[in-house]
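Moderator note: this is an archived Q&A kept for reference. The question asked for a predicted structure of one protein chain; the sequence and the answer are reproduced below.
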Amino acid sequence: MLVYQRTSSPLLSALTFAIGHLPWLLGGPFLSTIADRFPRHRVLIGTDITRAVVLAGMAIPGTPLPVLLGLLFLVSLCAPPFESARSALMADVLDGDRYAVATSLTNITLQLAQVVGFLAAGALVTVLSPSAALLIDSATFVVSAVWLWAGLKRRPAPSGDDGPRSVWRDTGAGLRLIRRSPRLLAIMGVLWVATMFTYASEGVAAPLVEELGSTDAAAIGILLAANPLGVAIGGLVIARLVAPERRERLVIPLVVLSLTPILVAGLVAVFAAPGTIPFAVVVALLVVSGLGSSWLIPLNVSFVRAVPAAYRGRAFGVAVSGLYGVQALGALGAGLVAEGVSASGVLALSGGLGLIAVTPALVAYRRTRGSMAAVADGEGPSEA
C-alpha cells in the first residue's frame, strides 16, 4: 500500500509483494534437504530459534533499512527447512485418514492465522511501535521452539542413501525423483499452475481496491483475507464431511471452482460502470474462490502417497519452493499487465487464462491416479 501510494505503479507494488517469496525461489530446494539430513525435530527447533534471534536483532531501534531487509531475508531463509521438516514429520507419524485430517486442520489453522494477520496488522502497527511489534514476532518463535522441544518425540534422521551424503547430492536426488515420476509431475503441475493464477491478483490488490472505489487501507487487508477465509471453511468441510476415498476425486472440480469466481469477479468489474460494483461482491466471490482452493488438502495427501518416506523432505522442499516461486512470478506478471490494463482486467485474465493453463495438468493428474514414484537404483529404497 505504501509503495503504491508513493509511486502509483502497480508493477512496483506487485514487486514489493513478490519479494517475500524470493528466498524460497532462490534457496528452497537446497535448504529443504536439511529436513532429510538431520533429525526433523532438531530442524524445527533450530530454525525457530534462529528466527527468534534475527527478529530480535531487527527490533533494535535505528537499524538501517538495508540491514533490516537483509535480516528479513535471513528470517525467510529459515522457512524452507522448517516447512519441509514439518510436512515430512507429519507424514512420518500419521497415516491414512489421520494424515488427511491433520493436514486439513493444519491448513485451516494457517488460513485463519492469515485472516487474523491481514485484518490486525494495521491495528498492531498503529498501537505499538515497529520495534515492539518485531519483539512480539520474535517471542512467537520462542514459544514455538519451546513447545516443539517439550512436545516432540526424538526421532533419528530418516534413513536413505548409504554412504556419504551431501546437500548437493540430496537436492539432485529429490529433483531427479520428481522428474522421473509422471505422478509427481502431474501433482506439481496442478499445484504450481493453479496457484500462480489463483493468487496472481494479490499482487495488484492496492490498485484493485482503488478501482473498486475504496480509499481505506484496511480494505486491502479485507480483500487479501477473503481467500484464506474461504480456504479455512472449505478445508473444514473436506476434513469433517467428505469421506477419505472421495477427497482425491474432488481435486479437479475444486480447482475449477477456485479459478471461475476470479474470472467472474473480473468480468463483472470490467463491464460495469465505474463505482457501481460493491466492494463486498468482489470480496464474496474471492471467498468462493477460497472454498475451491481447498483442493490443496487432497492434493497434499496424493503427494505424500506418491513419495517414498526418505525423500519426503526433499520432495516437499522442491514442491513448496516452486509454489512460492510461481506466486512471485504471478504477482509480478499481474503487476506488469496492470501497467496497461485495469486491475479488474488483470483479475479476469488471471481466472480465464488459469482455467486454460491448468487443464493439461488436471488431465495428467487424473491419468496417473494411483501410481507412485519409483526410486532409481543407488539412490535409496528400491521399492515404491
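Archived answer notes: Confidence is low (pLDDT under 50) at residues 375-384.
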